[in-house]
Design a protein that fits this description.
By secondary structure, the chain is mainly α. The chain has two domains: 93 residues, Rna Polymerase Sigma Factor, Chain: A; 56 residues, Arc Repressor Mutant, subunit A (Orthogonal Bundle), CATH 1.10.10.10. The chain is built from eight helices and no strands. α2 packs antiparallel against α3, α4 crosses α6 and α7 crosses α8. The longest helix is centred in the first third of the chain and has 32 residues. It is globular, with a radius of gyration of 21 Å.
Amino acid sequence: MQATMQSVPSQAGHRREVRRTGLAEVFQEQKDRVFRAAYRVTGNSSDAEDVLQTVFLRFAGQENMGEIRNLPAYLHRSAVNASLDVLRRRTETTPLETEPIPADLKLGPRADRDLELRDWLRRALGRLNPRWAEMFVLRFVEDYSNTEIARMMGTSTAVVAVLLHRTRARLKKDYLQMTRSTL
C-alpha cells in the first residue's frame, strides 16, 4: 500500500502539474498576440518583450484561471494595460524612445512626421486616465468595436462611446496645443 501511495501523485501536486502544462500551452498559443498588442502600443520590441513577460507572470499567479471566460481577450487587455503602464512610467522618468531607424532606410518628411505623431500619441496616452487610454487603444489601435470594448471592460456601450468622445476631444486639444507651441 505504501508503494502504491508513493506512485500516485497527490491531488494538489497533480493540479500544479496540469496547471504548469496548461500555462505552457497557453503561452505557446497566445504569446504572439500579446507581443503584437504590446508592440503596437509601446512601439518598441524591448518594451513589448517586457510586457509579454509581465502579462504571463501575472497570469501564472492567478488563482482563478479557470474562471476566465475569454482567455485571448483577457490576455490582450492585460497586454494593453501593461503597455500603458510602461508608457506612463516612461513619461514620468525619461523621454519616449522608439526603435532606432536603420541608417540605410531613407525617410522623407512625411515619415518623420508620422514618427513624431506616434511618439506624441504614446506620450499623450501615458498622461490620460488609464481607463480612457485603454478604451482608446482598444478602439483605435486594436480596432475592437464599442460593444466588444464594453463587454471586455464590464460597462455599457454608451459609456464607451462617451469616454471615447471625451478622450478624442482631449487628445485633439493636446495636439493643437503641441502644434501651436512648435510653430
